[in-house]
């Protein structure tokens, strides 16, 4: 059975499974060796591949040690420190990312907060409790027409299509329903009307008063003081 060989660590893994390979590639020892490899490669690229061993036309005077001169010219080699996260830091980062993703997935809407304690909250904001047109189409599979009655009545066109012909009473009732003005009943569980605005928004007037300055307080104070003086 072929096993995974790491070129940086020069070692074989115990099993060639994605989990073992992933844990090895994220390990501290592998990251340190891989970082050392690329640092050494960068230093090799900076140096010339074939250094010149002889200078043309050099003088015969004795110079200092070439090794010390080369060290003084190039300077000390730079050391790179790799700071790997501990298992505790990795676990905390995963937990924080999961919590952040959960907060982003949970959509917080303003209307849901406003209608949280209203009697018709479940009928509007719960998809399994909604009784809209799409749900009624899936239940009875009847053709939707403009003369469909709001409270579960059979429409004239749908009855005519299903029975092969419509009676005069159904057509008359449909016309009567279409001419009657609909008054919503918010307390009914079968109503299709929207919820009323919340009391917190309808308690105060929507527009501010146009009276910018008023002498009511001064007039009231003056009247009270005058009455007290008259009583004396």
- In the CATH scheme, the class of the domain at 1-46 and 82-106 would be Alpha Beta
Strand order of the largest sheet: 1-2
Largest sheet: 2 strands, antiparallel
Q: H/E series, N to C?
A: EEHHHHHHHHHHH
Mass-distribution shape: elongated
Please give a structural write-up:
The protein has helices at residues 18-25, 28-46, 66-74, 87-105, 110-114, 121-125, 133-140, 156-163, 168-179, 199-202, 216-231, and strands at 5-6, 11-12. Strand 1 and strand 2 (11-12) form a beta hairpin. The chain is built from eleven helices and two strands; from the N terminus they run E-E-H-H-H-H-H-H-H-H-H-H-H. It has 232 residues and is an all-alpha fold. Helix content is 49%, strand content 2%. A two-stranded antiparallel sheet has the order 1-2. It is elongated and about 125 Å long. Among the domains are: 1-46 and 82-106, Double Stranded RNA Binding Domain (2-Layer Sandwich), CATH 3.30.160; 108-143, no CATH class.
Question: What's the SSE blueprint?
Answer:
Elements: E1 5-6, E2 11-12, H1 18-25, H2 28-46, H3 66-74, H4 87-105, H5 110-114, H6 121-125, H7 133-140, H8 156-163, H9 168-179, H10 199-202, H11 216-231
Antiparallel strand pairs: 1-2
Features:
232 residues; mainly alpha; Double Stranded RNA Binding Domain; two-stranded antiparallel sheet; 11 helices; 49% helix; 2% strand; elongated; Matrin/U1-like-C_Znf_C2H2
